[in-house]
Design brief:
alpha/beta; elongated; seven-stranded mixed β-sheet
């Protein structure tokens, strides 16, 4: 059907057969770096992307990057590779070689390469990769090395970006969860790092909303709210700045997202319940001036949910809108006593 060799390595080949199998074979090192998004790609097999159902790596070829190789292969169902498969990105080595973390960077870059294959259709694999990155980042050799701490953060950001480019909200949902857990575990030991992570939650949330992926923005807000709560519970030194970062989330939006304001309401009711009036006041003020209909919707939606676990099977198994029983009356009082703005006048007749 189609075949070719890689310009960087004439002994490495790719072949697409009529049954939709894309096979990579040969020897040597392939150093091509492709680019693209959810509509286009510079890969040579892009014209056949709708026909590709599986990808098979054979031979003894090493690949410096697999980024964007399969982004547009909508019919792709499986990817297979032999044991010891060599897909190691080399580009970060020069920058981090002085830190003597070459082996760790090889592992991290291999995770990135596999993630590029998992997005947007193999969510179980994406979940495993995100968990692996979190666990790696929490190992003592990683937490004790500033360069590795920063690298783990950067790879989490890269995973989020890759999923957004592919317009894959489920993978973002998965990665955000593991990213938040990583941040919680790093706080209060590394408060500056956690503050930077909080910035990225707001950054990618805003980016997602601009792409029309409002659910992703709402998930980012809920995860950031949980991070703030856990920082106050731990009395972390960055808790006030984390709260300020949370209150900036979507603050410049012309139309507030209901999911973001739900995250605000949940956090405000937590602060009020545990006797922290000042942070409760600050979060409550972020809800003041909201349309009355929106405030009523927030109250009804949040109080309607009684199941802590989500009613479908997903990677988190947690309902974002769940409010603990002891917190529900406090939340209701907060929302009922807010002086919301009236909605648009309804036509008579």
């Amino acid at each position: 059907m189609a075949s070719g060799v890689f310009p960087s390595c004439s002994t490495a080949t790719w072949t697409i057969t009529s049954d939709g199998v894309l096979t990579f074979a040969g020897t040597g090192t392939v150093s091509e770096s492709y680019s693209g998004d959810y509509q286009t790609s510079t890969t040579p097999w892009f014209p056949y992307q709708s026909s590709i159902t599986s990808a098979v790596f054979t031979g003894s070829v090493s690949y410096t990057s697999l980024g964007f190789w399969f982004d547009n292969c909508r019919s792709l169902k499986s990817v297979s590779a032999p044991a010891g498969f060599g897909a190691v990105g080399l580009d970060p080595h020069d920058e981090l070689g002085a830190s003597r973390i070459w082996v760790e960077m090889k592992l991290l870059t291999k995770l990135r390469s596999i993630m590029s294959v998992a997005i947007p259709r193999t969510h179980d694999l994406a979940s495993s990769l995100a968990k692996t990155l979190r666990r790696f980042g929490l190992e003592p050799p990683a937490t004790s090395d500033p360069a590795l701490r920063e690298a783990v953060m950067e790879f989490f950001n890269t995973f989020v970006r890759m999923a957004l480019v592919a317009r894959d909200p489920r993978t973002v949902f998965i990665v955000f969860d593991q990213y938040r857990l990583f941040a919680v575990a790093m706080n209060p030991g590394y408060p500056s790092l956690v503050l930077e992570i909080a910035f990225y939650f707001t950054y990618y949330g805003k980016l997602a909303r601009g792409m029309g992926l409002e659910f992703v923005a709402e998930v980012a807000a809920h995860d950031l709210g949980k991070l703030v709560r856990q920082a106050w519970e731990a009395e972390a030194p960055n808790r006030q700045k984390l709260l300020e970062r949370f209150l900036l989330f979507d603050a410049d939006a012309r139309v507030p997202l209901a999911g973001v304001k739900k995250a605000h309401a949940i956090l405000a009711s937590y602060f009020a319940l545990v006797g922290l009036p000042e942070p409760a006041r600050l979060v409550r003020e972020s809800l003041a001036g909201m349309p009355r209909e929106l405030l009523a919707t927030l109250r009804d939606d949040l109080l309607h949910v009684h199941r802590e676990k989500y009613w479908e099977v997903n990677e988190r198994r947690m309902n974002l809108d769940y409010v603990p029983e002891e917190q529900r009356e406090t939340l209701r009082l907060i929302l009922d006593t807010l002086d919301g703005t009236p909605g648009p006048a309804k036509p008579r007749g």
